[in-house]
Fold this protein.
Amino acid sequence: MISLTATDTDGMAWYPTGPLAASLTRWIGPTRRGWTACWLDWLAESRAHRVICLLMGIWLLNGFDLAFTILSHEQGVLHEENPFARHMLQFGTVSIILYKIGMVLVGSYPLLRFRAARITELGTLVILAAYAFLAFRWSVCYELYSFTATNTLNMAEITTAGGLVPN
């Protein structure tokens, strides 16, 4: 009786004889580690993976910035300082959406192209921090806007309560 195993043929010497290839055991091995552990291992493996995750954060925060820009423009709260974006807002929301998506894609290309470089990881982290600061500023702006929209305050009431003018 002839038995055909993975090592019987010279051309199949590369074929793994174990139940799983060694490269797959850490993902779907018998220990069945959690998905968070696998994701953290993937993240820590290389700089390119970290740059991709940072870039996804930039895209997410840019989406929030776009949503707040459109919302505040429609409510009349925003005066856009960027002249090109102001011009796009005059033509409606579709034009500003296409403008922002285009700018993010154009800006993401060099970061993705050179994602293995140390300076790219640092630059992506700085950009993400700037967008996080912008998101914080939007949050403060909308808290102040919602406070003033729901409460009609008079400046005289604030000064008599000792809020702004020292006694």
Q: What stands out?
A: DSSP finds seven helices and no strands in the chain. The helical segments are 22-28, 35-45, 47-75, 83-90, 93-113, 118-150, 155-160. The two ends are 104 Å apart (CA to CA). Residues 46-148 form one domain.
